[in-house]
Design a protein that fits this description.
alpha+beta; DNA polymerase, domain 1; two-stranded antiparallel ribbon; 29% helix
């Protein structure tokens, strides 16, 4: 029985391997992968970076958050081919003690431990990646109030902590940061 509509016979199969050349955690990487491979699977299965977790697959929980060109993205809803020629940072890259530019990450990691903001830990990498990005881009700063923090983290879900320890951890870190001035420049510490 004939199929209605145009027939495509020369399009590549989405399972055909395609090269993806990207920078992951500061290292250039070129891997041939299926055009249908999700970024989360590319990172976990093909590059062995297991810190990025897979959970909802619908961009609702924040567990799979990574930074692409410095911006947080849900790796469960992006294809690996989408990061071709781009910079990707995972939780492993932020946790690298050799990278001195990751001091914000380290402050959040320490505060999560100190404030018992980690129960099962499954969501923690997504929170830490998101928080690092939010401070770096100025969304969260020393003057941020709890409502602003909660709004900024609305894309991250924790099923264990009840969020209060997470909020306390974030507030403790933000209190140590320089206070932004009216012009947006960083002023003295809070």
């Amino acid at each position: 029985m004939p199929v209605d509509g145009p027939q495509v016979t020369d399009s590549p199969d989405r399972t055909d391997p395609v090269p993806v050349s990207t920078t992951v955690n500061g290292r250039p990487v070129t891997v041939c992968t299926s055009a249908a491979t999700l970024l989360v699977d590319f990172l976990r299965d093909e590059l062995g970076l297991r810190g990025t977790k897979r959970s909802c697959d619908v961009q609702m929980c924040g567990t799979c958050t990574v930074l692409v060109d410095g911006r947080p993205v849900s790796s469960c809803c992006h294809l690996a081919v989408d990061v071709d020629r781009r910079d990707v940072r995972t939780i492993e890259g932020l946790a690298d003690p050799a990278d001195t530019g990751n001091s914000i990450y380290q402050l959040f990691e320490d505060a999560f431990v100190h404030h018992a903001a980690v129960q099962c830990g499954f969501c923690t990498p997504g929170f830490l990646v998101t928080l690092t990005s939010l401070v770096r881009d100025g969304t969260l700063h020393a003057g941020s109030r709890s409502g602003q923090i909660c709004a900024a983290l609305r894309g991250n879900i924790c099923r264990c902590t009840g969020y209060e320890p997470i909020l306390h951890a974030v507030e403790s870190v933000l209190a140590t940061l320089p206070t932004p001035t009216a012009s947006g420049e960083q002023g003295g510490t809070a």
